[in-house]
Amino acid sequence: MISNQDSIIQVSAPGKIILFGEHAVVLEKTAIASALSLRTTVTFTPNTNNTLLLDFPDLPGFGIREWSLDEFKKLDHFPNDVDLLKPIECNELFQKELNKIIDIKGIHTFLFLFCALTKCNKAYNIKITSDLPIGAGLGSSASFCVSICAGLLKAFDTYICGGCKQCVDNGIVIDQQKQQQQFCDEQLNLINLWSLQGEKIMHGTPSGIDNAVATFGKALTFTRKNGYKILDKGIPPLRILITNTKVSRSTKTLVEGVIQRSKLFPTLIDPVSNLIDTISTQCIESFNQYHTDKDNDKLQQTMDLMFDMNQHLLSGCYGVGHSSIDTIVSITKSLGFHTKLTGAGGGGCVITLLKQDTTLDQLSSLKSTLSSNGFESWEATIGDPGVLINIFPIQK
Ligand SMILES: Nc1ncnc2c1ncn2[C@@H]1O[C@H](COP(=O)(O)OP(=O)(O)O)[C@@H](O)[C@H]1O
Ligand SMILES: C[C@@](O)(CCOP(=O)(O)O)CC(=O)O
Ligand SMILES: [Mg+2]
């Protein structure tokens, strides 16, 4: 059998949209998210130079960089004694040491996961590409962390299930043509927990919803207390248009701002968070109702109202709106559609609820109005699978 250490490993994980509950989910409330068909792909190719070569074309100004593995191993706080089956946070002192090597949070995240999971015992060229816009609310950071963790655990044959048939052998083939495989649930849980440690370096206080949806895929509800729950019957056939404001923002700063506001003004912010929680739970109820009565009009009416309410609470009460988002809300409203931000807000992407019977002409008129205002939009495909893996033998 060819060892994984002598193979090319390719892993992909999806981005996501949050339908309801972003930010409130950090404050312990319920949120609902669905995986997107847009994915981040990581390719691990062994090298014989004792180096780590990173090729990150989507990270502005990064390009390709290479370090000797010894450069990391010699650091005083190198995570030597980590148990791979028990994910832990990055030691602050190690992060400070990484910061002296390179001052980019996303790269600290990568380097922490790489050092903790491989102990720098294997040299790799690693390429990461994404279909997702980076830093725009569609969960690129989580799909980045999930793909890295899944690939590195596989590279070292680290399985919390002990190496079940699904994880070690042929697995469940999701896509015959691409021969992509899925891990077992136990291994997915391990990947999810390691990815959360990565997200913590990027964001400080991630709720965990983004890495859960990038790991498990489909559509799920999430609370920090109870974790994720896959919506067994899926999401009703909603049509969603994603529009990118192209305004860049920092998830970390926005999340910190909302936490700060809720600490300073608990009597004002708690009821807002509770109302968002009610919107999320009402959404689940409406989905269940739809699965019974298939009443599209009723679902559309409720969802339209909840899109408006959630948007205004995020913008007016949590303070994570942006004038570009307001512009899209008003353009879409003038054409009869309801829009909310998705992810951290402050710019990034927004989602508009189309109707089941929105015609191609109506859609293209909506898209061209948005485009003439400088915004790019596309209809989303949601409910996609979570993290998937391919192994290729190296061609000699
Ligand atoms: N394909 C990628 N290549 C390199 N870094 C990435 C990639 N995707 C995500 N990242 C990291 O994630 C960060 C963006 O995460 P974040 O601000 O949470 O936005 P979002 O998750 O909404 O896209 C980037 O600044 C970068 O550090
Ligand atoms: C704002 C938040 O709810 C989602 C952030 O998503 P994104 O990184 O902006 O894609 C934060 C979180 O849940 O960790
Ligand atoms: Mg993110």
Description of the molecule:
- This protein is an alpha+beta fold.
- It contains 12 helices and 14 strands.
- The strands form 3 sheets. Strands 1, 2, 3, 4, 5, 8, 9 and 14 form an 8-stranded mixed sheet that branches.
- 46% of the residues are buried.
- The mean pLDDT is 95.
- The structure holds adenosine-5'-diphosphate, (3R)-3-hydroxy-3-methyl-5-(phosphonooxy)pentanoic acid and magnesium ion.
- Residues 139, 141-142, 210, 251 line the site of magnesium ion.
- Belongs to the GHMP kinase family. Mevalonate kinase subfamily.
Name its key features.
22% strand, binds magnesium ion, eight-stranded mixed β-sheet, alpha+beta, 396 residues, four-stranded antiparallel β-sheet, globular
Task: Write the topology of this structure.
Blueprint: E1 7-20, E2 31-46, E3 51-56, E4 63-68, H1 69-73, H2 92-101, H3 105-118, E5 124-130, H4 140-155, H5 165-168, E6 172-175, E7 180-182, H6 185-203, H7 209-216, E8 219-223, E9 227-230, E10 240-244, H8 251-264, H9 266-293, H10 296-317, H11 323-334, E11 338-341, E12 349-353, H12 360-372, E13 376-379, E14 388-393
Bound molecules: adenosine-5'-diphosphate, (3R)-3-hydroxy-3-methyl-5-(phosphonooxy)pentanoic acid and magnesium ion (MG).
Radius of gyration: 21 Å
Range of strand content: 15-25%
**Average predicted confidence as pLDDT:** 95
Count of alpha/pi helices: 12
Q: Kindly, what is the distance between the CA atoms of the first and last residues, rounded to a whole number of angstroms?
A: 16 Å
Question: How many strands, what sense, and barrel or not for the largest sheet?
Answer: 8 strands, mixed
Shape: globular
Report the uncertain regions. none
What's the order of the H and E elements?
A: EEEEHHHEHHEEHHEEEHHHHEEHEE
